[in-house]
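23S rRNA (Guanosine(2251)-2'-O)-methyltransferase RlmB: structure tokens wanted.
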Amino acid sequence: MPQAPSPQAPSDNSDTAPGDHDLPDDLPDDSSVGGWADSRRPATAAKSGAKSRSKSGPWSGAGRPFGGKGRSGGRPFPAKGGPRGGRERARRDDSLIILYGWHPVSEALRNPARRIRRLLATENAAKRLAEAGLLDPSPEIVRPAEIDRLVSADAVHQGLYAECDPLESPELDAVPTDGIVLVLDQVTDPHNVGAIVRSAAAFAVRAIVTTNRHSPEATGVLAKAASGGLEHTPLVTVQNLARALEGLRDRGFTLVGLDSNGDVELGDLELSAPVALVLGAEGKGLRQKTRETCDRLGRIDLPGRIDSLNVSNAAALALYVASRAIKR
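Answer:
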């Protein structure tokens, strides 16, 4: 549905006063911590205290998240010449996925399908990893400034930085047919896509389908906004969205496009799994071909004077409404 322009994401630094030095145990996801202690390796960071990594993941199968092989070397979102939403400032291998912050990095460490090539941690962050049993691989203990050089100026890294291989992108016909799938029609803002991934993980969405063009990479800003959701929600990339939608229909999915001018309120639709919720880009909404391919166009009626939502907020609300409708 047509969306208002995306407001600039609020700064994560607002939750913490400048000069804070310790990483508290109850650090919230979007908090920022300022200066850090020195770079000595803590005794608690020894590998002998590490716990084994979890073997669970979506689409189970020998610890792999997709229950089978995906595309060869499949990147959840293909590279488009560099990171979106804040370019990393130090030289690095652009084929790698960049993760920073507690939730993105810790969830990656828990995911046996995620191959981590390099892990940096400040002393306090390494202590927290040790307490969580997440010391495989062992982090390189560094000062905060060393991580600052590797991420964008406004990035809130919480003393953790990882370079990883991309997860495999599964084939469309491997998507399970027992729940909800999200389909993104040229949603390009990495903050929005990351927030959508986070909501999708919370609502146990079976997959997110997007095109391999006009979509951001699953790295950096997007991964931070996803708050670890990339490790739990498979991302499927396709060449042609209309054909992908037809493929989902052939497998039994009801295609519901979200549009402010939809012919029925989303909560009034009679839905049964599997369902594909289709969301368009902010400002433009669903493209004409996408609209024509959907089985129904649903709207979300709002009581206030503003009748549209940011696409990531609309996705979360639509997932809640559709999940309740399917359970009836």
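The mean pLDDT is 78. The longest strand covers residues 116-121.

Cheers.
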